[in-house]
Amino acid sequence: MLAAARSLRRLSSCSSSSVRSFRSVLPHPPPPAPSAPLPLPPLRTFTRALLPRIAAAHRFPTASFSSSAPSHLGECGGAREVPAIPEEAEGEEAAEEAGLLVRHDTDAYAAVELALDSVVKVFTVSSSPNYFLPWQNKAQRESMGSGFVIPGRRIVTNAHVVADHTFVLVRKHGSPTKYKAEVQAVGHECDLALLTVESEEFWDGVNSLELGDIPFLQEAVAVVGYPQGGDNISVTKGVVSRVEPTQYAHGATQLMAIQIDAAINPGNSGGPAIMGDKVAGVAFQNLSGAENIGYIIPVPVIKRFISGVEESGRYSGFCTLGVSCQATENVQLRECFGMRSEMTGVLVSRINPLSDAYKILKKDDILLEFDGVPIANDGTVPFRNRERITFDHLVSMKKPEETAVLKVLRDGEEQELNVTLRPLQPLVPVHQFDKLPSYYIFAGFVFIPLTQPYLHEFGEDWYNASPRRLCERALRELPKKAGEQLVILSQVLMDDINVGYERLAELQVKKVNGVEVENLKHLCSLVEGCTEENLRFDLDDERVIVLKYQNARLATSRVLKRHRIPSAMSSDLVKDQATNGEVEASFTS
């Protein structure tokens, strides 16, 4: 899974300092056959950007166009005239009468024409936290991505385009003006975000795109956006290659995705994939090391994200059953658990204690059906025409607090059980975007909750470079109760008070004065409320730290002043301390 996750790459918005390389992709018109019985091919599928050159190559006048293609309007304004084919291309009508040309209600050219008034370029200024020094941010960076307008005067883009943003601007196609945008909602698991623009001028002449459905295999899509290599809008075409749950590189979650062979590059992030006159998905990542393998977020995931925001006013997350399952493809395994020959299902091997399933399911149950849909021995369920997909997709499409009916085989008997589904937080957070990291400093010891972004600070190869024990716990351990965190001693800021303890960094803190630590907030309250002469920390590997409490409190302000740290604790802990009426431990210089 980790190798696959590393091979997936977000179409992270291209930096303004990206090196640009150009290559001519304009096709040369083929020489006309001496006595060709058929007319020239129709030009409706070419984009507006190529029409002048192609027309010149065929000696077509570019000035006399008339509107004949149907227009599809959103609620944000009207569409521009759609150019038709020049009068010289009379052979197209003859070919249509002869049955050699098949027309569609909305051709690719009209779809692209509609997208030109809907797709915007997103400019983001962002600043990510420094998890090694959690009291400060990293250097500000500028990046760019794409987005498109949907009904309700909202703009859809990728979450990674606006992650850790400090300022966001958008620009329409063909406009020199940038408009300030506000982030309404962000779903990092599904890599989607909604933007709003207050300026009335921005919405003048803007069309909204309608969401379509999941395309079938080999159906053609056009990806519209602003990839690196230029400043203007870009359109690439491809076909659908695969539809299945895929690892989302930004949110590290498994959700449905559509694989296409269109050329998608950094900067395409957030741009729509158009099929017909509707959106088939949102471009968001590609497969590094492979050519023309890109991924788009399908419409069901987009609708699930938007509906959650509309119902609750904020992103509500995607549900999970909270169980780990094993395939039952081995005949002996199925016989051992009493499965008859006609039965199919998966074996429940582990259950998250925070899930509703923990109270209902048992280890070694055989999960036969989910909401009446039979689960195969490999964990898949039927999907469309002779396709299959893992049953996790059915779970992820449920809304929070919805109930699912599970048919299980337990001790040889079939049972139907009701389980309430909800989003579950892992013991070690996978991402921490758009929020400041928590920390607590006492006597030079920096305590933080373990997160995967902290491990990512060890570099590109963080899985091998980060502390092995912390990495294994981050990826495999489950929480035992709500609010639990793994608190670690991340580093020691040297002072006379902590000499000799500097090698104890990167270890988990188990106890404070004999009390087991539940989370960072609990550790902070135990230290601040200490009434004993000595303060003792019990760490991993049976290591121990003992400090004279009053001397350590005095040393804290000295350490903060030396390292120019504004506060001994993060703002969330300061707020909690003030709420609980405890002594505020904000030692400032």
UniProtKB/TrEMBL annotation:
One of its GO terms (molecular function) is serine-type endopeptidase activity. SUPFAM superfamilies: PDZ domain-like, Trypsin-like serine proteases. Residues 428-572 form the Protease Do-like PDZ domain. It comes from the Eukaryota. The keyword Protease applies. Residues 321-421 form the PDZ domain. GO terms for biological process: proteolysis. Transmembrane segments: none annotated. InterPro entries: DEGP_PDZ (IPR041517), DEGP_PDZ_sf (IPR046449), PDZ (IPR001478), PDZ_sf (IPR036034), Peptidase_S1_PA (IPR009003), Peptidase_S1_PA_chymotrypsin (IPR043504), Peptidase_S1C (IPR001940). Gene3D superfamilies: 2.30.42.10, 3.20.190.20, Trypsin-like serine proteases (2.40.10.10). Keywords: Hydrolase, Protease, Serine protease. The keyword Hydrolase applies. PANTHER family: PROTEASE DO-LIKE 10, MITOCHONDRIAL-RELATED (PTHR45980:SF9), PTHR45980. Belongs to the peptidase S1C family. This is Protease Do-like PDZ domain-containing protein. It comes from Paspalum notatum var. saurae.
